[in-house]
Each structure stands twice: as C-alpha cells, then as structure tokens.
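Try it yourself: sequence plus magnesium ion, in.
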Amino acid sequence: MGIETASALVVMGVSGSGKSTIAERLAARLGWRYVDGDLFHPPASVAKMSAGHPLTDDDRWPWLRAIAAEIDRLSAAGTPAVVACSALKRAYRDILVHGRNDVRIVFLDGTKDLIAGRLAARRGHFMPPGLLDSQFRTLESPQPDERPITVSIDASVEGIVNDIVRQLEATAP
Ligand SMILES: Nc1ncnc2c1ncn2[C@@H]1O[C@H](COP(=O)(O)OP(=O)(O)OP(=O)(O)O)[C@@H](O)[C@H]1O
Ligand SMILES: [Mg+2]
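Structure, out:
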C-alpha cells in the first residue's frame, strides 16, 4: 500500500511555499525523477510571462496537458516522478491527475506571513508586489475527494519530506 503504488506526486502550493525545494529533495529521497512543471509552458506563454503579462486559464490548459502527458510517459517507462507545479485550482489538478489513482497531490500548506518571509529572503527571483495576495486569492485548497497529502511547511525541509513520506506510507493507493 501507499508509496510503491504511486507513479507520480504533484507537489503544489502558492509561490514560495517550497515546491521546487521540497519536490527536489523528495525525489532524491525516493530515487524518483524530479520534474519542474514550469518547463512545460509553450514558447508563446514563456514570451507572454517574460513581457510581464499574466497567463489566462486558456494559456494554462495546454501547459497542464503537457505535464499530464509527461506523467503518463514517465509512468509507462517505469520512472516514477515528483512534479513541482503550483496547481492552485481544482480544474488544474484534475488535468494533472486525469483520473489516475497513482497520481497523488501533495499540498504545501502555510500562512501568508511565513511564505512572505521566505520569499523576501529568496535570492535570484523577482517577486512582484501583490503576487502572494493574488496567489492566495486564487488558491483552491485540495478537497478530501482529491485524497491530498497535506503537510505544514512550518518545519525544516527534512521534516517536511519526512512528513510526506510517512503520510504516503500510511495511506491506501
Ligand atoms: N522548509 C523550509 N524552511 C526554510 N526555507 C525554505 C523551506 N522551504 C523552502 N524554503 C525557501 O523558501 C524559498 C521559496 O522556496 P521555493 O523556491 O522552493 O518555492 P516555490 O514554491 O518553488 O516558489 P515558486 O512558485 O516561485 O517557484 C526558497 O528560498 C527556499 O530556499
Ligand atoms: Mg519553484
């Protein structure tokens, strides 16, 4: 039960919640592939974001479908993966999970204050003011029927990874 029946874990949460950090460490711990969801944006969306324009949901559907296709591809190749992707809305997650029981959602749960502090300390990343507010406005926390693994991010990276692994081992597939 649990971890060995999963093909992919989607590590989700608002900007600065620790998706890249945690997904990378979790993948290393499990010996799984780390996949950065941001790399699947089509070139037109990358150009749009570079020009400072926000993406619309219509921009996001092909991106999310591309990540779902990568999950299918890796799973078929016998390569389980940990995917970092904000996946703030239910509709986004439904595309990523696409009815697969072996794709599990990992929700990085934390307060705005905690995350704002981490973002302020993060180097090499430009963060427009107000972005965190808009992220929290957009966030639709995963519902019980999504069988999310929810972890508090008010802990060390090691502690968070341990919590995820423990919860995965304890839950049915
Ligand atoms: N548990 C933690 N304790 C302390 N610092 C952390 C923790 N997790 C992440 N950080 C730090 O918080 C900052 C944000 O983390 P990270 O870049 O992984 O978030 P993200 O969700 O991938 O953000 P984005 O959506 O902008 O890509 C980084 O500087 C990271 O080093
Ligand atoms: Mg990131």
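One thing you can check immediately is this: The pocket of adenosine-5'-triphosphate (ligand 1) is lined by residues 13, 15-21, 86, 118, 122, 153, 156-157, 160 (CB under 6 Å).
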